Amino acid sequence: MRMLVTGGAGFIGSNFVHYMLREHPEDIIINADSLTYAGNLENLRAVEQEPNYQFVRVDITDREALRPLFEQEIDVVVNFAAESHVDRSILEPDVFVRTNILGTQTLLDLAKEFKVRKFVQVSTDEVYGTLGDTGLFSETTPLAANSPYSASKAGADLLVRAYHETFGLPVNITRCSNNYGPYQFPEKLIPLMIQNALADKQLPVYGDGLNVRDWLYVEDHCKAIDLVIREGATGEVYNVGGNNERNNLQVVRTILQELGKPESLITYVTDRPGHDRRYAIDASKIRTQLGWQPKYNYESGIVETIRWYLSNQAWMEQVKSGGYRDYYEMQYGER
Ligand code: NAD
Ligand code: DAU
Fold first, then answer.
1. Which of 46, 267, 286, 322 has the CA that lies 20 to 30 A from 231?
2. Where do the NAD(P)-binding domain residues begin and end (predicted)?
3. Domains and CATH numbers, the chain
């Protein structure tokens, strides 16, 4: 299978590339990524020489630059490429609309023209909006996005659906809850709090710290996408979640405990505008129909993740300094 993976230099995309090369060495992976601030080839250094792996620097809104990739007879497109951080979307929505909506539509057009066998859109539970104290998001929960980020992802999901309904493009959409694990950019809750705690800096907790997220280890998400690629029924949406609801204070306290740092580092700051209170996923469809099971337990997974960041401080420093871009220029010439 020849697979075009977009956004493969980001957090989940790079974990997915590692996962696929390990689990399916017979497949060919073409990683198309424009290397925004969130894309980091350091995440893929261990696989860059693999004969069945190729990296191409390309923006998913650039149709003509993408065309030669599709001319290589792509079987499957997996679209991870996105602007992914809610806080940035509040400051600068334009790029979210451009990449997440226009970029997805550009890929859909090419997938249609070149008759790919499957198009998998990696989406998010945030398209469903927010939950109160009870209930779970199912695949039939109405879309009710609350941030510019989630609105742009919801727009993309509807385009994916439309290309299936209107043009018969074989698609799937996966909607996953919060991922944690190696290679996450330190603007997101877990790596940010680890970094701040290590430097004895304040840990900025939004609002009352009681917003709830449903945490899933990134490799379990990769496994779910792999199953959907191979066995997902055409046109279907699959929710993916770890059944690990934790509020933000619980997550932050675990990090402090594991690092032996005091709770006095916690600082309550102004809440995120439009901050969704609670996300929780009903993953029974992917479990029963595709036999997906998460392998990682949150309690051990979070400790393993904290240790990963501890033993990969050089990676973290490079990401923070943007030093990986120098490496890219050395490897691939001019940007
Ligand atoms: P990320 O921000 O870490 O990585 C995004 C990647 O996309 C980067 O490598 C970046 O360079 C690339 N990219 C951005 N704009 C691009 C463009 N115009 N053209 C080509 N490449 C571009 O994001 P992530 O956390 O790995 O998320 C990956 C996908 O999964 C996103 O679509 C996101 O919406 C979705 N998702 C994320 C989570 C999560 O918890 N992180 C949960 C559910 C769904
Ligand atoms: O639910 C899936 C989504 O999870 C993905 O679609 C997004 O791409 C991903 O970024 C993530 O969104 P969140 O907004 O849930 O993740 P974030 O790490 O930004 O925040 C997690 C929670 O922690 C949220 O309630 C806000 C809070 N928070 C976050 C930061 C960065 C803080 O309290 N302080 C912080 O400094």
1. 46
2. 4-304
3. 2-182+217-243+278-297+321-332 (3.40.50.720)
